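2024-03-11 09:14:02 INFO worker-7 job=invfold-0412 stage=load source=structure_tokens
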């Protein structure tokens, strides 16, 4: 019974399990199951290439769309040239010479020979005082001098013959000299009747008219001021004295004078005087320059702008003043690279110069290109569409429009 049960159990356990075929498969049958068509490989390669191309194309489009277009900006080259080192001050002009014309003899004015406010030259006639009394005195003095000369001649002949004493001869000599001196004094007084200009200049408003009695104790007849050259008076603050003393006496020290409205060409003159002490209370030092004024463009007591030039800076680097910007870190400029991208460069600006240029003491090199307008839309690494900078007259419509377009 036990043997039959075990056999039946084995039969039950083996039931339902498929029996492995004992017939071996041929190589051709296995190859037919594993073979993949060649066109499937080709199709897979084409699909992979297409997918890769679309991925790169999508990324390039996204990268291009993420970059902003180049910003328009005006640019200019860094230039080098010699420029002045200076102090800007406010001053006034003063006449180079001022003469109060006085009467040297007493008499009545009989003629006036000038127009008030006209230019006169040295030796021009101004007034004539009645010369008749002085002419009479001169004639009398000349007659007395002639008589004394005749008497002296006679005394010389008598002395040669030893007829007169030495005292008589000495008296004759003294009388001749005295009368000659009286004649010369009379001639001087007569010349004083013809009042002439002692300098070149511009005459003021007369104080007397024809018919007035004048004399040495009278007030001045008229004033004359020399206007070419003219003095330029200004002051320098005591804080600037160390810089002034450094260059004082140098060959490049000059005084440039001009008007605020630009109506005259700036006049370049020489330093004439600098005071020896600081003025108490104001903390300034008086300075005076001598300025050419051939066209009378500058007038006494007129307020002027003064540029006190101390030295010349050789080969200074200059950029347009608009190129220099200020940030929390200090002054900077945008320097344009070869690929038209910009670099933020810290700089040390110096003084402003003619032509709306600013000296850059360090931070840029000659022939580098800087952005002049359009900085507000830029950041380091940004790309620009550069346009040449053309300086415009301040306030002109063209300059206003150019500034707006660059912004």
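2024-03-11 09:14:09 INFO worker-7 stage=emit residues=407
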């Amino acid at each position: 019974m036990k043997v039959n049960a075990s056999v039946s159990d084995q039969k039950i356990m083996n039931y339902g399990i498929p029996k492995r075929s004992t017939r071996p498969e041929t190589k051709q049958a296995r190859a037919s199951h594993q073979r993949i068509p060649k066109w499937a490989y080709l199709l897979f390669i084409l699909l992979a290439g297409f997918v890769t191309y679309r991925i790169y194309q999508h990324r390039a489009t996204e990268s291009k769309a993420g970059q902003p277009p180049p910003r328009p900006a005006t640019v200019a080259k860094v230039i080098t040239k010699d420029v002045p080192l200076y102090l800007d001050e406010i001053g006034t002009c003063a006449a180079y010479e001022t003469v109060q014309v006085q009467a040297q003899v007493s008499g009545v004015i009989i003629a006036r020979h000038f127009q008030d406010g006209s230019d006169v030259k040295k030796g021009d006639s101004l007034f004539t005082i009645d010369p008749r009394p002085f002419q009479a005195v001169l004639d009398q003095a000349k007659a007395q001098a002639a008589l004394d000369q005749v008497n002296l001649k006679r005394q010389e002949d008598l002395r040669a013959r030893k007829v007169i004493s030495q005292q008589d001869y000495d008296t004759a000599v003294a009388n001749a000299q005295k009368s000659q001196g009286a004649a010369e004094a009379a001639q001087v007084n007569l010349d004083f009747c013809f009042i002439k200009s002692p300098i070149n200049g511009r005459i003021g408003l007369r104080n007397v008219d024809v018919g007035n009695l004048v004399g040495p104790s009278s007030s001045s007849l008229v004033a004359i001021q020399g206007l070419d050259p003219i003095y330029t008076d200004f002051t320098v603050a005591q804080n600037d004295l160390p810089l002034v003393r450094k260059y004082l006496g140098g060959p490049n020290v000059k005084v440039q004078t001009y008007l605020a409205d630009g109506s005259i060409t700036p006049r370049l003159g020489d330093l004439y005087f600098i005071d020896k002490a600081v003025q108490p209370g104001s903390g300034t030092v008086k300075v005076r320059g001598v300025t050419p004024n051939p066209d009378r463009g500058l007038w006494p007591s007129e307020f002027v702008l003064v540029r006190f030039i101390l030295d010349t800076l050789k080969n200074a680097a200059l950029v347009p003043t608009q190129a220099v910007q200020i940030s929390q870190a200090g002054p900077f400029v945008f320097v344009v690279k070869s690929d038209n991208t910009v670099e933020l460069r810290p700089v040390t600006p110096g003084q402003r110069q003619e032509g709306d240029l600013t000296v850059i003491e360090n931070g840029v090199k000659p022939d580098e290109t800087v952005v002049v307008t359009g900085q507000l839309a830029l950041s380091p690494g940004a790309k620009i569409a550069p346009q040449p900078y053309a300086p415009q007259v301040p306030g002109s419509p063209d300059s206003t429009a150019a500034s707006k377009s660059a912004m």
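2024-03-11 09:14:09 INFO worker-7 stage=report msg="The two ends are 111 Å apart (CA to CA)."
2024-03-11 09:14:10 INFO worker-7 job finished
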